[in-house]
């Protein structure tokens, strides 16, 4: 497998590095996290720069990039601010990719040019209070009223960014006879529709954008809002998972590297017992392990991006990627906090933010236990 980047990709990475430092400096990140305010200005700058159109075909106003380009964008954004990367990822996966892969021609013509211009952002509503890991047990229903209309009733939980999104890809039960994966459909719903109530959830990390619970009370939609076939919603979620796993892993590895760089610098400059703490093997071995985890995570997600480009991505490869990169991110932030000593525990220093944000990575979008189940199943167990 060839892991060399093209010259264009190297230039894109270098451009993103300086662009992101400029639009998303450290003090801005700290303020967004402390005040619980989304990085509106930085997101707008990315929209204005055309980055939301990266994977959208040129005929719909995008730049027609591939999965490697997407991974570079998310890795570089994650290095600056994971919440900014999450906002990008949601729009590019649950908006752009879902519509590119499963939307009708009319939906493509309506949504894709607007996404490419950065005019619309998207959320994803799958999880419900009684269906988390067992996501296909969802109950929120879209009931057909006549030939054209549907009425939605129920509750979703953990719909991240719903309050700042224009549309949400909502996964709903359209048949009561077919339970689990069958009888599920996906609707692209305007978040401002009558009958939708959004409540913010207070969380340990990801405090800038965070997540919400959403109540649907007699929300009226039409069959034009359905993405793909009625009853084919589970397959759509599954196909989008490739992009979700790729984006999350790239963004979190970027964040892990930023956290590692801080810890490395601290280990070189913080002196105790008349020498830098990094001169102690207990500290330097932690940093060596962190470096190995970052290298392996990068190899895994660029390998996965290559598989997506070749149409060869598989469910168990996605699970290996999600499990390794998220567990590594969590471990790296734990090591960084230990290296920072008492200062790592202080809100004044950024390590605590990485530590809090990383804790979600082994829970959200499929827990580590569920990833291990998928990998074990692929081994015939
Ligand atoms: C901040 C945040 C943001 C999120 N964003 C979104 C979003 O935008 N959209 C969305 O739809 N969802 C989102 N989620 C939901 C997330 O994907 C779920 O929380 C996750 O899938 C786990 O579901 P649960 O919380 O209900 O835990 P549960 O499924 O109740 O699991 C609880 C524990 O039991 C374990 N467990 C469950 N089943 C098994 C099993 N079969 N084998 C072994 N262990 C098992 C789990 O691994 C876990 O440790 C978000 C969650 C959070 C916290």
UniProtKB/TrEMBL annotation:
Coiled-coil segments on the chain, per record: none
InterPro entries tied to this protein: Acyl-CoA_DH_CS (IPR006089), Acyl-CoA_Oxase/DH_mid-dom (IPR006091), Acyl-CoA_Oxase/DH_mid-dom_sf (IPR046373), AcylCo_DH-like_C (IPR036250), AcylCo_DH/oxidase_C (IPR009075), AcylCoA_DH/ox_N (IPR013786), AcylCoA_DH/ox_N_sf (IPR037069), AcylCoA_DH/oxidase_NM_dom_sf (IPR009100)
Residue ranges constituting the Acyl-CoA dehydrogenase/oxidase C-terminal domain according to the UniProt record: 231-379
UniProt domain Acyl-CoA dehydrogenase/oxidase N-terminal: residue ranges: 6-119
GO MF terms held by the record: acyl-CoA dehydrogenase activity; flavin adenine dinucleotide binding
Cofactors required: FAD
Keyword vocabulary terms for this entry: FAD, Flavoprotein, Oxidoreductase
Family the entry assigns: Belongs to the acyl-CoA dehydrogenase family.
UniProt name for this protein: Acyl-CoA dehydrogenase
Organism whose genome encodes this protein: PS1 clade bacterium
Taxonomic classification: Bacteria, Pseudomonadati, Pseudomonadota, Alphaproteobacteria, PS1 clade
